[in-house]
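Sequence in, structure out. Go.
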Amino acid sequence: LAIPSASQDAERIARFIRENATSIQRIVATMDSHHKLHIAHPSFWTNAESGKHPDPFTVISMEDVKSGTWIPRKDLKFPVGRPLVEADVFTKGGEISSAIQSTEEENFDILQYCIEYTRRLEEKGRFQLCIWPEHCLIGTEGHNIVDDVRKALDYWSGATGGNVEWVIKGENLLTEMYSALRADVPLTMNTDFNQELFESVCCFRLSLFFNCVGIHSCFFTIYAVKKVSEIGGLRTSHEPLRKLHSA
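Output:
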């Protein structure tokens, strides 16, 4: 799901890495990683009457879910293993019904969950739920690092002995995660605030931190930088970072 300038952005990132390889001590790269039936993808949702899926860039409100304009598909099945919702994390955002405290429960009420999820998004006042074209599907070409950047990362590793640190985000199909530090609505420890990454990025002075894969990589990076600034009280005289923080 590339924006029009994605190829040029990738070329600039790759050139920057190659030209400054010996000056870069560390590279932290985040990868947007989604299931097909992610809450921000069309096939997660249907219209209660027609059964049709929403078009990309449809914005779904809490009232849309309550009215049946858009409801989660009734046959949705969760991956086996670690639950997608952990009550001790989810309840930090407010009290919730027992029917949505864990996806391990057979009686998990996905409709009630989606009402609560969209409510929390709207309550924060930053985003509503936007439906994106399917992107960064795990295991597909669109999930991979583009060739120019991948080759530049390999060049940096070979030239310096460094290893890229990968941060995978977006695997939980029940919440959106623009920032690499925390999901918009945290549901589990893996989607709650990543204190270790936060402290690591703040304390390491010569890190290159960017989003390698995905749609609007600048958009994701902006929110990662903003999150670092908001939580850590980061102050910088570096003009590009100050512009990101004020975006």
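Check: Residues 211-223, 232-247 have pLDDT under 50 and may be disordered. The radius of gyration is 19 Å.
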